[in-house]
Amino acid sequence: MTAWLVVLAVGAGSYVMRTAFVVALAGRPTPVWITRVSRFVLPSAFASLVAGAVHGAPATVAVGVAGVVAFRTRSTVTALAAGLPAFWIAQGFLR
Questions:
Q1: How many helices (H) and strands (E) does the chain have?
Q2: Distance, CA of 18 to CA of 20 (rounded, Å)
Q3: CA distances from 8 to 1, 3, 22, 28, 40 (A)
Q4: Closest to 79 (Cα-Cα) out of 46, 54, 48, 37
C-alpha cells in the first residue's frame, strides 16, 4: 500500500463517519434540547481554537476582553472586533 492510498482511505473513512449521523437522521425532527444547545457551537469552537493558541500575557488580556464583550453583547463579531485591538494594545504595553 502506498502512502497516498492510506491517506485517501483514512480521509474517506473520516468523511463517512462524520456524515453518517447527518444522513441517518436527516428526515427526523430536531429535538428541542439540540436546538437549544446548538447556539453554543460557534462560541465553543472559537474558545477551543483560542485555548490552544493563547501564549503569554497579551493574548490572555485579549481573550479576557473578548470574553467579557461576548458575554455582554452576545455577538461573536463584536467580541472579535474588541479582542484584536486589545491584543495589539497589550502587545505594546506588555512586551
A1: 5, 0
A2: 6
A3: 11, 9, 22, 31, 32
A4: 46
Contacts of 66 (CB under 8 A, 6+ apart): 50, 79, 80, 82, 83, 86
Q: Give the integer Cα–Cα distance in Å for 81 and 8.
A: 39
CB 61 within 8 A of CB 90: yes
Cβ atoms of residues 83 and 59 within 8 Å: no
Q: d(Cα 84, Cα 76) in Å, to the nearest integer? A: 12
pLDDT in tens, 11-68: 999 999 999 988 888 888 888 998 888 888 888 888 788 777 777 888 888 889 998 9
> Counting every residue, how long is the chain?
95
pTM: 0.49
